[in-house]
Write a structure and sequence with these properties.
The protein is an alpha/beta fold. The chain is built from 13 helices and twelve strands. The chain has two domains: 133 residues, Alpha-Beta Complex (Aspartate Aminotransferase, domain 1); 237 residues, Type I PLP-dependent aspartate aminotransferase-like (Major domain) (Aspartate Aminotransferase, domain 2, 3-Layer(aba) Sandwich). The mean pLDDT is 96. Bound molecules: pyridoxal-5'-phosphate. InterPro entries: Aminotrans_V_dom, Cysteine_dSase, PyrdxlP-dep_Trfase, PyrdxlP-dep_Trfase_major, PyrdxlP-dep_Trfase_small.
């Protein structure tokens, strides 16, 4: 059977060059970067080189990049760590209704500790209004956290505009850039953010590696205490193979970012136009908003997304319904609800997320099999 993977927003395969780059650190170069002997020094060089590669993607100094176990840990450290460090200044945070659970649930945990959180809404296109963020700020606000690119629908938020309004009030600005990192240009100075989270396994590195950028080191209480690795911001022996993988993945991403973005943009149009030509009553989420080129969230009126996903899976096509995290539960996605997607479409949404290996042939195969699958799901 032909297998087609169109779920790159959930995770990506490790690229062969990335695997090559990390293997020495699983084998002979296994040293602990904190060790002073040559094993340790070789591992330290790998960590330093990878930090440079990440910093280059962000236009940031290498010293502002901290490695962690991934995007979830980065989001939790920043949100809880700022809340902890700034609790004498205020106990109010602002985020949006369409954030990843690693942001929403970290905020919910703070609410249980007595912090107040404002969840700013989005419009039908899935965009946050910078003025709505500004209107939500109070004397108590210590942190605003709004994502760059949404993982379910791919919409790109006006982070630079939002950050400008936030920082003009002396409030810290965080952005979860996990889905945008390595896919669109991200300069921390242009964005004007104080913190930015990223992850390796969404950009063809391995699972369990990621990190964050921080502008000023003084405002964060670390989550993990121990051996003072990562300048004391994140203790624990470094995941050297993962860090080497992330560094290589960053170098590859910077090498052809614009070309790969354009290539996936054409595939996205081929997919979306093709679906519209062949199938009636479809709704493409965030169609008119600035969007990632690889993400298409398409809802089919009167069909059940889970049934569509399962039928596609039987024919070798891997996609997801809503977010990977809410797959398996039949609750409609919080993102689609926040976008006020009409009830008729709410349960019939599929997320196609394209990647480096996706070809026009793959898209055409999906377009061939999808009309029958949708017709069948609608007849149930
Ligand atoms: C995947 C993802 C995360 C979580 O990152 P992990 O490295 O898997 O913990 C956070 N935010 C967004 C937007 C994501 O897509």
């Amino acid at each position: 059977m032909r297998y087609i993977y169109l779920d790159h927003n959930a995770t990506t395969p490790v690229l062969p060059d990335v695997l090559e780059a990390m293997l020495p650190y699983q084998r002979e170069a296994f040293g602990n970067p904190s060790s002073v002997h040559h094993y340790g020094r070789r591992a330290r060089v790998a960590v330093d080189d990878a930090r440079d590669a990440v910093a280059e993607v962000l236009g940031a100094p290498a010293s502002s990049v901290i490695f962690s176990s991934g995007g979830t840990e980065a989001n939790n450290t920043i949100i809880k760590g700022v809340a902890q460090a700034r609790r004498e200044h205020g106990r109010h945070l602002v985020t949006s209704q369409i954030e990843h659970p690693a942001v929403l649930d970290a905020c919910a945990a703070l609410e249980r500790q007595g912090y107040e959180v404002t969840y700013v809404p989005v419009d039908e296109r899935g965009l946050v209004d910078p003025q709505a963020v500004r209107d939500s700020l109070t004397d108590q606000t210590i942190l605003v956290s709004i994502m760059v690119a949404n993982n379910e629908v791919g919409t790109l938020q006006p982070i630079a505009d939002i950050a400008c309004l936030v920082r003009e009030r002396g409030i810290l600005m965080h952005t979860d850039a996990v889905q945008a990192f390595g896919k669109v240009p991200l300069s921390v100075d242009h964005l004007g953010v104080d913190f930015l989270s990223f992850s390796g396994h969404k950009i063809y590195a391995t699972k369990g590696i990621g990190g964050w950028y921080e502008r000023s080191p003084a405002v964060l209480q670390p989550l993990l205490h121990g051996g003072h690795q990562e300048r004391g911001r994140r203790s624990g022996t470094e995941n050297v193979p993962g860090i080497a993988a992330l560094g290589k993945a960053c170098a590859i991403a910077t090498g052809d970012m614009a070309a790969e973005d354009e290539r996936q943009r054409q595939l996205q149009q081929r997919l979306e136009h093709g679906i519209r030509e062949r199938i009636g009553d479809v709704r493409i989420q965030g169609e008119d908003a600035p969007r990632l080129s690889g993400t298409s969230n398409v809802a089919f009126a009167g069909a059940e997304g889970e049934a569509l996903m399962m039928s596609l899976d039987l024919q070798g096509v891997a996609i997801s319904t809503g977010s990977a995290c809410s797959s398996g539960s039949l609750e409609p996605s919080h993102v689609l609800r926040a976008m006020r997607v009409p009830r008729l479409y709410l349960h019939g949404a599929l997320r196609f997320s394209l990647g480096r290996a996706t070809t026009a042939d793959d898209v055409d195969y999906v377009l061939d099999i999808l009309p029958d699958i949708v017709a069948q799901a609608r007849s149930v």
